[in-house]
Amino acid sequence: MAPIPQGGTVAVTGSAGFIGGWLVRQLLDEGYRVRACVRDTNDDAKVSFLKEMPGYASGRLTLHSANLDEAGCFDEIFKGCQGVAHLSHVSSYDDMDYVKMVCDHVIKSVNESETVNRVVVTSSIAAVMSETDTQELVRRPVLFEDRYPDEQNPNRQTNRGQGYSMGKVLAERAFADAAEESGRWDAITCCPGDNVGPILSAHQKNFGPWQHHIETMLLGKYSQNVMGAYRAWFTVDVRDVAEAHIRMLESVNVYNGERFIAWSTETRDVEDICASIDRLLPELGFAGAELVDPLPDKVKAKEAEFRAIWRGCELRNDRIREALDMEFRPLDVSIRDCVESLISVGKVAPVKKPGF
Ligand SMILES: NC(=O)c1ccc[n+]([C@@H]2O[C@H](COP(=O)([O-])OP(=O)(O)OC[C@H]3O[C@@H](n4cnc5c(N)ncnc54)[C@H](OP(=O)(O)O)[C@@H]3O)[C@@H](O)[C@H]2O)c1
């Protein structure tokens, strides 16, 4: 199937979000026309950063209100687009019938556009490695694109915290199957790691988990990682994830149903992320922060075991580096830029050492 043409038109769902905002900006920088889909184009707290982009002034960037819960919401927006980057979250990951329904909404609009050649579906590393039984990570510790969580485990249920992972796997397959059936477009999946990097708008500090954790560190109290008990952050810079989406839209080396993990393979424990702030920005006078551990006692008792399991995982990104020629920023750069943006864009006031 065809990649998108240089300078073509790309619709981005979830454009007001952390990754979506960067994707819009980088698509514009690379010469594309962008239709930014947000839930409410009048919600200036979320979208004014998009309206301030130079492409908006000329009309190369346009904003569109669409709630993917409503059938047909993208019908008019996708007409005339060659590419769609489907980044938005869904309203809930607790109900797989609902997740399938919203996939069908997007798919129907892609089919009816008659112009879209390629869709990049944003999934997650949760669709690669989220296990109800952590011993599965000991049995299959290599984290690469052909790995899926153990779908036969009877505890892989929404009420056991697996809804996000299940919904992402469902969406990957729904789009690949629909693309195959259409014969006109293809669907490529991007599975990003833990996104760290600069926010573009103050509201983005409130949602994405990782920049929000760094905000809490700056404010003096942060939490042990509960999304995978005692798991180190498996990181990637948000700007690299945006770039990966663009390369997936442009590439002639990808095929329908293929998935790429976007992470640098650099990992760091949450305590060391916090300690990095003073090391990277001594001028800030950051006083450091208190770590709280909200995990239940029975999980705390197994801390050493969990840490060893995570340390035994082998993170791979050969496929994305080879097929898409991707390189990844060092985590230190992502942390530094995240902190500076939280202060300058998010107006976060860090706790300071005496004298600063
Ligand atoms: N951040 C990470 O570390 C990470 C890691 C792995 C995968 N991902 C995936 O990457 C994608 C983007 O993540 P992000 O961190 O950029 O998320 P984010 O900042 O929370 O942005 C997600 C966007 O989804 C939109 N959205 C939610 N429900 C919607 C609905 N019913 N209809 C239309 N739009 C809806 C929101 O739009 P409005 O703001 O307009 O309301 C929001 O801006 C997600 O699919 C996420 O699962 C993220």
Percent strand: 15-25%
Instruction: Give the radius of gyration.
Output: 20 Å
CATH topology: Rossmann fold
Please provide the ordered H/E string of secondary-structure elements: EHEHHEHEHEHHEHEEHEEHEEHEHHEHH
Q: Helix/strand-derived class?
A: alpha/beta
The total of helices stands at 15
Q: Outline, from the CA principal axes?
A: globular
CATH architecture classification name = 3-Layer(aba) Sandwich
Largest β-sheet summary: 7 strands, parallel
Placed side by side, the strands forming the largest sheet appear as: 3-2-1-4-5-7-11
Give the bound compounds: NADP nicotinamide-adenine-dinucleotide phosphate
Can you walk through the features of this model?
By secondary structure, the chain is α/β, with parallel strands linked by helices. The chain is built from 15 helices and 14 strands. The protein has helices at residues 18-29, 44-51, 54-58, 75-78, 96-113, 126-129, 135-139, 163-182, 209-219, 238-250, 270-280, 297-300, 303-311, 318-324, 331-344; strands at residues 9-13, 33-38, 61-65, 83-86, 118-122, 142-143, 186-192, 194-196, 221-223, 233-237, 259-262, 267-268, 290-292, 314-315. A 7-stranded parallel beta sheet has the order 3-2-1-4-5-7-11, with helices on both faces. Strands 8-10-12 form a 3-stranded mixed beta sheet. Strands 6-14 form a two-stranded parallel sheet. The longest helix is centred in the middle third of the chain and has 20 residues, at 163-182. The chain starts with 8 loop residues before the first strand and ends in a 12-residue tail after the last helix. The site of NADP nicotinamide-adenine-dinucleotide phosphate has 26 residues, from helix 1 and strand 8. NADP nicotinamide-adenine-dinucleotide phosphate binds next to helix 1 and strand 8.
